[in-house]
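User:
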Amino acid sequence: MRIKSIISFIKTATLGIIGCLVALAASAQEIKLAKPTTGELAFQDLELGVFIHYSIDVYAERGAAHGATPASAFNPTELNAEQWVLAAKAMGAKFVVLTARHEEGFCLWPTKTADYSVKSSPYKNGHGDIVREFVDACRKYGLKVGLDDPPWIDSHWELSQTNLSPGREAGRIDKFDKPAAYAKGLAKEKGRLRELMTDYGPLVFFWNDHYGRSDSIGTVPQGGLFRKFYAELAQEAHELQPNCLYFGPDVEHVGNEEGYSCYPMWNAVPSLDGTDYTISTTFKWNGTNTGNPFGKFYRPRLGLITDGFSTGDWMWTGPRQPQLLELRMQVFYDTIGRGASVIINLTPDRRGLIPDDLVTVAKETGDEIKRRFSNPIAQSTASDPVQTLKFDEPEKFDHIVTMEDLRDGQKIAKYTIEAQMDGEWKTVVQGQTIGHKRIDQFAPVTATAVRFTCTESLAQPVVVRSLALFNAGVKAP
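Assistant: Predicted structure:
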């Protein structure tokens, strides 16, 4: 790294550049920006996660009714949770989430809430606990632990307890509108939540599918008891593990499963009813979740994808084809590079192992991320909203990674990055939000200096966390 100097922000020299921001910031001072918790900040630093989708679905016969596969069908012969975790770690993941229970209803731990679990299967003669094996493997190899138990659909339980047929009827939003059904479903879910959050140590994250489903699938929020159902579970989770981020009120969906976040994107959101236990007004399923710069609640955005890494659905149904490296990397740019986090799907096969070809491309992905972003040619940790990096001799680069200090809320609304080439300043990037991280990629530039300028902000002071230049040697999209 060769940096002659970092020229910090000098008020007298830059009043002309950002003078237009002063009035905007002055009015914004009266508005309280949403601030993240320390847990939310730490979660954003994790950035990349892996979702292990694995359950009795893998052993279901083709055409079998959802939730009707008998527990006796679940019999992995080579299951190895450490192999899953090592594959995730090789990809560069910092946290891993396991489907402790998926929508079929089969529990991967010996729950006391139902018999439809590993205790009724041939796996380890009914004495297995895959959740335990998973969390132990994560902690052994230094990855944070997340679990998933989707409250909306529990097909086996619903078939036996509520007489709801699988498929469309089980997916009804009004299915818990009757008080008896609501109480029964909530008691079951709270029981499972208590087991998972009490018996397996501290969790960093708890995923629950379809938080806010009743309010996000149509043009008009439906609310009702379904909204209350999720809110009560979130409150229970916060009581059991206050430091565990619960999907919905603590971390929110990007709005799609295609592996991208919208841009610009604000972590602040307003909620439907003004409380922290309903979905934001900016979230629509299969849409984009832009957030709102002056929203009351800070919610980091998380994207997930099933087929951006390999072909196929969430669960194993047969051989999967790894995607091309550039497609896998595009997911990285379109999520982490836009300020969100991402969770990549890996699914074990019927043996209970992630196939060798997927393990290989997981490592290839992690190695490529390291190659592109581990060795900056220049880096600044100055916090000023206008700063210049000068080099002893011309440097070639094609990426700039900027991070914002978010402890007092997300503020940067627009910025420019200029490069000094042949003595002249030329704009190479005009961007909007930065948030946790912004990755700007462009055609290679050879320059003697780089200048970052925040040109619009919500409030003062604007604090930059870091600015780094990379020469990855890849073609710009």
